[in-house]
Amino acid sequence: MGVEEGGLVKRMDGGELFKMMEGYVEASNKACGSEGELGFYDVSSWLRFPFYEADFGWGTPVWIGVLNGASKNIIMYLDTKSGVGVDT
């Protein structure tokens, strides 16, 4: 069943998506742990997302950061507030 038929979206409800991400985190932790032989890095870019334009009623954010969660070796690229540089 293809994406156009709703197959992928239909299968990726909240619970199943969470299970898939949990497996991803476990696999990456195993690869990066002291027993792992692979150097595993997850690199993602959030450049050009309008995070600094979001206003939830108390003004726009002064700084945006990414919380380092359950996995190691994650690199996230974000725009600086001025939009001129890259923050990691």
Automatic annotation (TrEMBL):
<dbReference type="GO" id="GO:0016746">
    <property type="term" value="F:acyltransferase activity"/>
</dbReference>
<dbReference type="Pfam" id="PF02458">
    <property type="entry name" value="Transferase"/>
</dbReference>
<dbReference type="InterPro" id="IPR023213">
    <property type="entry name" value="CAT-like_dom_sf"/>
</dbReference>
<protein>
    <submittedName>
        <fullName>Uncharacterized protein</fullName>
    </submittedName>
</protein>
<comment type="similarity">
    <text>Belongs to the plant acyltransferase family.</text>
</comment>
<keyword id="KW-0808">Transferase</keyword>
<keyword id="KW-0012">Acyltransferase</keyword>
